[in-house]
Design a protein that fits this description.
By secondary structure, this protein is an alpha+beta fold. The protein folds into 4 domains: 147 residues, no CATH class; 77 residues, Beta Barrel (OB fold (Dihydrolipoamide Acetyltransferase, E2P)); 62 residues, no CATH class; 73 residues, Immunoglobulin-like (Sandwich), CATH 2.60.40. The protein has 9 helices and 12 strands. It is elongated.
């Protein structure tokens, strides 16, 4: 009961929530003033934000272009932060709650005809939050010890110094092969975990079309990752997205020559050439021209790098127990374009071409496969195929 109201009014605020509201209002006012949103000051005691345009609050979510040094903030995060701090179990939180109760108890003890002897509790709390001191009329009757008053003030200062600000993160994410559910924009991290991307209005962020960025395309996303989960997905509020690289996307390579059939037919009208051939008199193989997107019929259209033979640079078997490891090294620049497997034979004449041992991309051009020897003699050789 706020006995200082005229007329008396029943309110639902407890002393602790009243104090939390006043602190929240003061901190929000501080942020608004920093962002030069001048106008009505918010001290929390009135709890009336009707004169503040909703777009003003929305703009706090993002940095101001002209005031880039002032961080962004989510109002709901500030509200939850203050609430958690006031309702904590630490001594500072306990002292602040006791101080708020003490103010209300002192005011409640006044006789009805002496309510004006003390400021209303919300006014007293607002003065305390603003100055760090209780109004003199409350200081004389407080039940708090000097030590509790000092601990409460230290906690108040700590709350003001540690308000939750938004810090953007930069992460490489990837276009998914599976379509996003209706109304959502999902990408994935390197481990395949879906990430929900939202724009500044918290709507589904616009992603490139599949023609612009097919599945596997790497994008650099600068975003805020302080949103709660939405629909079970980790959600990012996107600031910017940058296309990093396109994956090697090919159609069928029916003759296994590291050239997509459609590319061969478009440039030569036939599948008669293999990836190691040369058509324009340059030093570049057709496979390297294909992977670099240059014209294989023109010597003036060449890849921007030195000629790189499209073959395995190293192949070895590292013995171990209980597993040994096959290692094959493919030119690193084109490692993302191929899938590597290992064929097996028991006599070096007949090779198992149907049941390849799948290689794992270990980075830097290396592909590996762990294997246990279960027969006295076995041979291996690596095979590279265009990634589909």
């Amino acid at each position: 009961m706020n006995r200082g109201a005229q007329p008396y009014a029943q309110v639902t605020l407890t002393p602790a929530t009243s104090l939390a509201a006043v602190i929240f209002g003061a901190l929000l006012d501080q942020v608004l003033q920093q962002r030069l949103f001048f106008g009505q000051s918010i001290n929390g005691s009135a709890l009336d934000f009707s004169d503040i345009d909703s777009s003003t609050f929305a703009r706090l979510r993002r940095p101001d272009i002209e005031l880039s040094s002032i961080p962004a903030m989510r109002i709901i995060a500030l509200l939850r932060f203050v609430d958690d701090q006031i309702n904590g179990s630490d001594l500072g939180a306990q002292a602040l709650r006791k101080l708020a109760r003490d103010i209300y108890l002192q005011h409640s003890a006044l006789a009805p005809d002496h309510l004006g002897d003390l400021p209303t509790p919300l006014t007293a709390l607002a003065e305390y939050v603003t100055t760090g001191l209780l109004p003199p009329s409350y200081q004389t009757g407080t039940a708090l010890t000097p030590g509790e008053i000092a601990v409460a003030l230290a906690k108040l200062n700590a709350i003001a110094a540690n308000i939750p600000l938004r810090t953007p993160v930069t992460q490489t994410l990837y276009i998914r092969s599976a379509p996003s559910p209706l109304g959502l924009s999902l990408v994935q991290d390197s481990g395949g975990t879906p990430i929900l991307l939202l724009d500044e209005h918290l709507r589904a962020a616009a992603l490139p079309t599949t023609a612009e960025a097919p599945a596997g395309t790497a994008i650099e996303v600068v975003a805020y990752n302080d949103l709660p989960q939405i629909g079970g997905y980790t959600a990012y509020e996107v600031i910017s997205m940058t296309l990093l690289s396109l994956p090697f996307v090919v159609d069928e390579d029916s003759d296994g020559d590291l050239l997509a059939d459609s590319w061969e037919r478009r440039h030569f009208g036939t599948l008669a050439f293999d990836g190691f051939a040369n058509r324009d008199g340059s030093l570049y193989s057709l496979a390297q021209e294909y992977l670099e997107g240059t014209d294989p019929n023109s010597s003036s259209s060449s890849p921007p790098v030195e000629p790189i033979p499209l073959r395995f640079l190293a192949f070895e078997l590292v013995n171990g127990s209980p597993l040994s490891q096959l290692l094959a090294l493919w030119p690193e620049r084109y490692a993302g374009a191929v899938e590597v497997g290992f064929q097996t034979s028991e006599d070096l004449v007949t090779w198992d071409t149907l049941s390849l041992l799948a290689g794992t991309d270990a980075g830097a051009g290396w592909f590996t496969h762990n294997i246990a020897f279960d027969r006295p003699r076995r041979f291996f050789r690596p095979l590279a195929e265009l990634k589909r």
